[in-house]
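Appendix B, Record 12. Input sequence as logged:
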Amino acid sequence: MAETKAKFAQVDPVWSHICEEARAAVRDEPLLGGFIHSSILHHATLERALAYRFSLKLASGEMSEQLLREIADEAYTTDPSLGQVARADIVAVYDRDPACHRFMQPLMFFKGFQAVQAYRIGHWLWNNGRRDLAYFVQMRVSEIFGVDIHPGARVGQGIMIDHAHSIVIGETAVVGDNVSMLHSVTLGGTGKEEEDRHPKIGDGVLIGAGAKVLGNIKVGNCSRIAAGSVVLQEVPPCKTVAGVPARIVGEAGCDQPALSMDQVITGSE
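Logged structural output:
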């Protein structure tokens, strides 16, 4: 007799936790049952749920939900890293946003997370030579979420964008891993140059609300940009900059400012 081997499902703690929270949410608020079932509990994987949310939010008379779902499913199937990065983003939001109390919240309710995941599909299209579709995704993300990330920009994992309204990230911008930023941040250019013209944000950087970082400049790892600042020159690692134009006002205040989310500038820095 042939030996029968037990088969175990792949362990996915983030998705399992989201499904547990979803079932509890349905028990607590039955009126949201259809919404939660269609968005989470009807799907076998996080990738399928992300594709559903992408297609539902971005669909319009110009592009149907079915076509967008096919695009997203292809992206997640072809590039498994998209799903892994999404998990890192969920954990980042849960860890850093005091308004996030459950893993399911970014997927269901937070436009910063949803906009970043839609950008990632647009970036996948861009890298695969499907530029017009990538531009379409960028357009719809801007229209629906108020977030404008060029599909050519490179954005790392563990990203948390709080509130996310009026975020602008240019074509040649690079955002490292474990970066946190608040609403109305611009990573932009300074003129009409067409080559490498946007900021390079290092790992672990915290960018405060309304900050503008302009030009092909580097912001060093684990630095901190105060709210409302206009950064026009390179920022060394582990420093705090503030003002218009921004200048160094002290150290970053801790080893990981993007994780602590501490934006208070003290006189001791």
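The chain is about 40% helix and 15% strand.
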